[in-house]
Amino acid sequence: MFNMTKLVIIGLAIAAAAMPVLAVDGAFGRSIPGTWVVPSVGVVGPDSGFSFTTFPIGYMGARGGNRLSEAFGVLLTNDEANVSINVLIPSYVWKTESQKVSFSSSFMVPVNWWGVTAEQHVNGTLNGFLQRTNSANSSVADIVAIPLTVGIHFSNNNNLAFSAWVWTPTGLFQPGNISSVGMGVWTVMPNFAHTYFWEKRNLEFDNFVGFDIYGHNAATNYTSGTVFHWDGMALQYFGKKRFGIGAIGSNITQITDDRGPLADELNGFAGRKWGVGPIILYTAKRDNPGMSFQLRWINEFKVTNMLKGNTFMAGVSLRVK
User: Fold this and answer.
1) What are phi and psi of 281, to 5 degrees?
2) Is the pLDDT of residue 110 over 90?
3) pTM
4) Taking a C-beta distance cutoff of 8 angstroms, is the pair 167, 217 a contact?
5) I need a labelling partner for 208 at 20 to 30 A (CA). Which of 25, 117, 166, 195 fits?
6) How far is 238 from 245, CA to CA, in rounded Å?
């Protein structure tokens, strides 16, 4: 683990999806498979100080076969989407006297661009005539507040963190606008993360578990179901922890149905999927500044009512003490 007062991550993430079926209002949801788990995800501090992170994500998807989805109060078929997300994350680790417990506070500011092409059911029902629609928007999306993260240090190699993330409906949202960058609802994600480092074998195990609990969107009369998600990662380090290879596994399962008139037409529209893939890490320089590279790929399978495809992420991390 690196001690630092400032963290800057500059990266590029590209996701390619083919033939997806969508669930959750807005067709995208709050969580993407394999993105929340990172090295040392369960470690908070222990050194106090400020950090800053930028986290870019890209996603491309297309769906054919005249299959239905719901987005922002309208029914769609044969839709294509290109999404660019850049998340700015300032955070602060609070000074404590205890060596066993640490606290941090942070928030996320996503700046999104959405471009969507779809056949829209104009009167909002399955019997409505289809109209080809193109729409694009860019704006600050729903800001995420993380008031308090509690980190527990069982030992230097065994750490646990838990918190509750809150998505605020601050992003651009218009009912019927299929490229809205916000969802127009409050969302709470209670979560916990764990990191264990097996010193003898140079192995690291990271897990992140959360529940996305969506509020009711009065403008569209739609409530997305609660979504469970788990991301796990195992890393094998080599060469004094300069190089690491590993694997990521992920599961997203919607545990309650969507609710509302459009959700009823889609029989609740609950979705689920699995993802698995490799990750490669390389630390080029540890200090002044520290620099590391990361590459990951997540392939999705056993997909129901959600995007199906592949996620590719490549990034450069800069660390300044």
Assistant:
1) -125, 145
2) no
3) 0.82
4) no
5) 25
6) 9
